[in-house]
Amino acid sequence: MVEYILETRGITKHFPGVLANDNVEIKIRQGEIHSIIGENGAGKTTLMNIIYGLIRPDRGEIFYKGKKVEISNPSVAIRLGIGMVHQHFMLVPPFTVWENIVLGKEITRRGVLDKASICSELRRLMDSYGLSVPLEEKVEDLSVGIRQKVELIKLLYRGAELLILDEPTALLVPQEIEELFEILENLKKQGKTIIFISHKLKEVLRISDRITVMRRGKVVGEVEGRTADEETLARLMIGKTLESPQLEAYERGEEVLRLEGVRLLPRLKNINLTLYKGEILGLAGIEGNGQKELLEIITGLLTPESGKVFYKNREVQHLDPRSLREIGIGFIPEDRQTTGLILDFTVAENIILGRHYKEPYSIRGKLNLPVIKKTAVDIVKEYDIRTSTVDKYVRFLSGGNQQKVILGRELYSEPELLIASQPTRGLDVGATEMIHNLLLSARKKGMAILLYSSDLDEIMTLSDRIAVIYNGEIVGILSPKEIDEATLGLYMTGARKD
Q1: Taking residues 66-77, what's their average pLDDT?
Q2: Nearest CA-CA partner of 172 in 493, 461, 410, 437
Q3: Which CATH superfamily is domain 4-238 in?
Q4: Close Cβ partners of 40 (under 8 Å, ≥ 6 residues apart)
Q5: Domain with CATH 3.40.50.300 in the chain
Q6: Cα–Cα distance measured from residue 97 to residue 142, given in angstroms and rounded to the nearest whole number
Q7: I need a labelling partner for 189 at 20 to 30 A (CA). Which of 38, 266, 329, 421 fits?
Q8: How confident is the model at residue 182 (pLDDT cuts 50, 70, 90)?
């Protein structure tokens, strides 16, 4: 048996204006959990996509089990024994679990799907690896944690020996994260090798045998998991030590936002909520429990069936998004590519979206290009957006830098109420630290912030109060000083309720 199941040698990849991978060399040992971490734009995703065959390198070599291989597409990777679970799951929601698992690798008898044989094989596989999923249920009816298990079983069904997991804990509550880690440890014991991509340093330290750190396309360090600490990893990633955000005491200001009996069945049932000037109200909940609809009602994207939304004592539930922006409500949407940006617009064009029709960005119906460009340059500098020019299409920015374009646009306009949905999702630790400090600074100046995040550490650190939503209802208003993450997780799963 070779010591290294996977090696890359001299992997280099250019994109327009960006050197994404610069002579990258990594070595992954057989049967280990190996984490790869780095800033946004460090080249992690590009490297994983090259290993999985989604992107071809400009130069460099890949060795798998000691032999040089050409991975021209994912089918080649899968045949070799390399599988990947993407951050956004590649499942067909209306299909059942078993249909999703076997899709493309079906067992047939006389040209007809042999469901009995398929399900028997899947049950044997699940017993072997200690995984359990409801084979007959539709994927659209499953929790995020169960969907992730389906993705893992899908890879194991195809014979994967090396599993690449991209941000696998991004949407999980603490109990689900612990369950995932137990699964990964079990897979390791059975000889599987795992590449773990994450921005959460605590998780990386908890699960990793070894950790490779990338910065600006290069490998800058490799450390043993048992001897590493957060300070060491952060310094390698961003060149400095992280400082924990300090939540200063605050005096509650006047009411800014109030929801009374808001309903939108089947997702929302009688939501009552109040947010005050100068506070951060965290919204915690497992994805699919109504938080998306709640935020879209507040920002004018949806109209409730009943109930009222008040902004500074003005009833606003029937106003459209532009009208709400006009009166001082900003919005950082969860899905940056679908609802936050226009990918084929430039950085500058995206930065003035929502204000593009007003002076000084538009004069007598024409865009004032010099002012737009100057504003964009200022925001790019202030928010450390990594782009070669403000005239570059945002499609070609890394996910984290796309997110910073949105954050810069919204905070620059200084709204009185900011609805922030997953504001640091996909951001590295340095960028996350910067965003946390920006939100705390805005709070200190009196901004009211409704913060939804699947990162419970973020919710616990930044929030003055935490509203927990479960099955379309607020089941608790909690003080982060009086609870821990495990208790918060119990509320989020409906096991506890005020």
Answers
A1: 95
A2: 493
A3: P-loop containing nucleotide triphosphate hydrolases (3.40.50.300)
A4: 386, 398, 399, 400, 401, 426, 427, 428, 431
A5: 4-238, 255-492
A6: 9
A7: 38
A8: very high
Task: Compute the distance between CA of residue 321 and CA of residue 329 in angstroms, rounded to an integer.
Answer: 9
Q: Band the pLDDT of 288: cuts 50, 70, 90.
A: confident
Q: Tell whether the torsion through CA atoms of 343, 344, 349 and 354 is positive or negative.
A: negative
How far apart CA 332 and CA 354 sit, in angstroms, is 12
Phi, psi (deg, nearest 5) at residue 21: -125, 130
**Phi and psi, residue 63, nearest 5°:** -115, 130
Q: Which residue has the higher pLDDT, 288 or 229?
A: 229
Quick: pLDDT tens for 402-437.
Answer: 888 998 999 988 899 999 998 987 677 777 888 898
Determine the pLDDT at residue 244: 66
Residues β-bridged to residue 477: 467
| Spatial distance between the Cα atoms of 446 and 276, rounded to a whole number of angstroms | 9
Is the model's pTM score more than 0.85? no
Say which residues have a Cβ less than 8 Å from residue 192's Cβ, sequence separation at least 6.
31, 160, 161, 162, 163
Provide the mean pLDDT of the chain. 90
Joined together, the tokens standing for residue 54 give 């989604």
Q: Which fold has domain 255-492?
A: Rossmann fold (3.40.50)
Q: Please give the average per-residue pLDDT across 208-213, as a whole number.
A: 96
Angstrom distance (rounded) from CA 41 to CA 18: 9
Burial 48-63 (b: 16+ CB within 10 A, else e): bbbbbbbbebeebebb
- Antiparallel, parallel or unpaired: β 465-470 and 473-478: antiparallel
Pair of tokens at residue 493: 């799963």
Identify the bridge partners of residue 96 per DSSP, sorted by sequence position: 138
Return the top range by mean pLDDT from 39-48, 125-134, 140-149.
Answer: 125-134
Residue 1 has pLDDT above 60, yes or no: no
